[in-house]
Amino acid sequence: MKKSFWSEPYLWIHASGLAVLPLALGVCWLGLAAGDPVFPVWLEYLAIALVGIVPIFAMQWFRPFNIFSILLICLRPEVLSEEQRRILSLFKLPSHRLVAAIAPAILSIVLWKIYVWAPMAAAVTPFPPGWRLVGLAVGAIAFGASNLFLQVPISVFRVLLTPETTFATTAPYPVEQIRSDFTNPGLPVRQILPPMKEEQSA
Fold first, then answer.
1. Where are the transmembrane segments (predicted)?
2. Cβ neighbours of residue 43 under 8 Å, at least 6 residues apart?
């Protein structure tokens, strides 16, 4: 049965970000394939894991990503509808923090596998063997992107699985608290996507 809030396009836009995850992990793999380790294996792995996990984990734990944004622009809190603010309230539930903790744990295991298998990509990586530090930096950034494109989509899917009755009884998030309680990337604007047909009719 289709739920009323499933028509919200921002949910599906950010859910589709999951498709970027394999690409980001692939770039991470190519970065780690550059040259031989210059530091102990455990230190390189730990550094990449911390750089890639901690910032996104902290964001999702304390100030979840505001999905009513695209690239470098974000909807102003005052233009959000009650339904959109109900959606934001769902991102502040305790279960959201559980997702924020599980996702990086899974990715840390994936990162170890990528690190161990990195020599297999040595022949195709665009980074010369002497660029190990550059490769590590690229790998860390790409791993951070991987964490972002896993964390945000699965938190969106968790919202999409919310029962209609629960959504209907969820209080809209206070407009005045959105800026301080969520990560609002980019320039605040009044409109990003064109109005939906239902809104135009109204």
1. 45-75, 96-118, 130-150
2. none
Report angle CA 155, 157, 163 to the nearest 5 degrees.
110
In this structure, how many other beta carbons lie within 10 angstroms of the beta carbon of residue 16?
12
Do residues 173 and 75 make contact, with C-beta atoms less than 8 angstroms apart?
no
Return left, alpha or beta for 144; rule: phi > 0 is left, psi -120 to 50 is alpha, else beta.
Answer: alpha
CA pair distance 68, 135, nearest whole angstrom: 33
Torsion of CA 108, 145, 85, 77, to 10 degrees: 140
Helices (H), the chain: 9-15, 21-32, 41-62, 82-90, 94-117, 132-160, 164-168, 175-181, 197-201
pTM for this predicted structure: 0.89
> Could you tell me the two tokens for 36?
């031989």
CB 162 within 8 A of CB 67: no
d(CA 106, CA 84): 30
Residue ranges of domains in the chain? 23-186
For the stretch 48-91, pLDDT in tens is 999 999 999 999 999 999 999 998 899 999 999 999 999 999 99
